[in-house]
């Protein structure tokens, strides 16, 4: 099964600053990649996904992630964060056609005023 | 509002009790999942049902018994649990073998005394 590594367990930033949350996955073969966000005491919500095609994917709330096959990375970025972006962010990977999504350890993003 | 509904939201049980967690979705998804999430940890895959058949069992102890009565329902039967089984149990569903994207419920928080 695939695996992902999130390089930062906690990322504190000030409001309106840019942020990057890093994610590397284990294999260079075909994969599906995802970023999920989890607010306290809630389930996980899909932020964005890469299945194929354009390597840059965007979410409706300003986040974007770039699939880099040579570096096996799928880092999440936002040019200007808000207090409301404070949450736990999980990178996830699955094999196409196999229902076995695996999550990274998570990155706690804390946005300070 | 989430389209995956989990009940109960909170459950407290003793080590000799028998209880069940329930999950329901009406999105026509044919794959359903149970994940276990400990505090400040990522979700860990427990079971996957595909077309009402158990397709993945991640070596989960037999005190956890999954059941998929039909394509919309998923149960997790609990018996003789240990305090270390206390966690957030997340149900998810996906359109099998297509995008791999999971839709999560808000979870059932289980406390074993």
Can you describe what's shown?
The complex is a heterodimer of chains A (113) and B (113). Chain A has 113 residues and is an all-beta fold. Chain A is built from no helices and 12 strands. Chain A has strands spanning 4-6, 10-14, 19-21, 23-25, 32-38, 44-50, 56-58, 64-68, 73-78, 87-94, 102-103, 107-112. In chain A, strands 2, 5, 6, 10, 11 and 12 form a 6-stranded mixed β-sheet that branches. With 113 residues, chain B is an all-beta fold. Chain B is 0% helix and 57% strand. Chain B contains no helices and 11 strands. The mean pLDDT of chain B is 91. At the A-B interface, β5, β6 and β11 of A face β5, β9 and β10 of B.
SS-based structural class of chain A? mainly beta
The backbone outline of chain A, from C-alpha atoms, is: globular
Give the terminus-to-terminus CA distance of chain A: 40 Å
Averaging pLDDT over every residue of chain B, what do you get? 91
Strand content of chain A: over 45%
Contiguous helical run count of chain B: 0
Structural topology:
The complex is a heterodimer of chains A (113) and B (113).
Chain A: E1 4-6, E2 10-14, E3 19-21, E4 23-25, E5 32-38, E6 44-50, E7 56-58, E8 64-68, E9 73-78, E10 87-94, E11 102-103, E12 107-112
Parallel strand pairs in A: 2-12
Antiparallel strand pairs in A: 1-4, 3-9, 5-6, 5-10, 7-8, 8-9, 10-11, 10-12
Chain B: E1 4-7, E2 10-13, E3 18-25, E4 31-37, E5 44-50, E6 53-57, E7 64-70, E8 73-79, E9 87-94, E10 103-104, E11 108-112
Parallel strand pairs in B: 2-11
Antiparallel strand pairs in B: 1-3, 3-8, 4-5, 4-9, 5-6, 7-8, 9-10, 9-11
């Amino acid at each position: 099964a695939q695996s992902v590594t999130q390089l930062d367990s906690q990322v504190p930033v000030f409001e309106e600053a840019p942020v990057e949350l890093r994610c590397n996955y284990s294999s260079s073969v075909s994969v599906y990649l995802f970023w999920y966000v989890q607010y306290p005491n809630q389930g996980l919500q899909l932020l964005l996904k890469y299945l194929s095609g354009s390597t840059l994917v965007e979410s409706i709330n300003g986040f974007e992630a770039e699939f880099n096959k040579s570096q096996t990375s799928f880092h999440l970025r936002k040019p200007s964060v808000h207090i409301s972006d404070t949450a736990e962010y999980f990178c996830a990977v699955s094999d196409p056609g196999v229902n076995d999504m695996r999550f990274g350890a998570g990155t706690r993003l804390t946005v300070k005023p | 509002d989430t389209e995956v509904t989990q009940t109960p939201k909170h459950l407290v049980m003793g080590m000799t009790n028998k209880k069940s967690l329930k999950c329901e979705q009406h999105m026509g998804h044919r794959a359903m999942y149970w994940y276990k999430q400990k505090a400040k940890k990522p979700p860990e895959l427990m079971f996957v049902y595909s077309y009402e058949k158990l397709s993945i069992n991640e070596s989960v102890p037999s005190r956890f018994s999954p059941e998929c009565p039909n394509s919309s329902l998923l149960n997790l039967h609990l018996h003789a649990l240990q305090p270390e089984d206390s966690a957030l149990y997340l149900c998810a569903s996906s359109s099998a073998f297509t995008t791999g994207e999971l839709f999560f419920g808000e979870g059932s928080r289980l406390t074993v005394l």
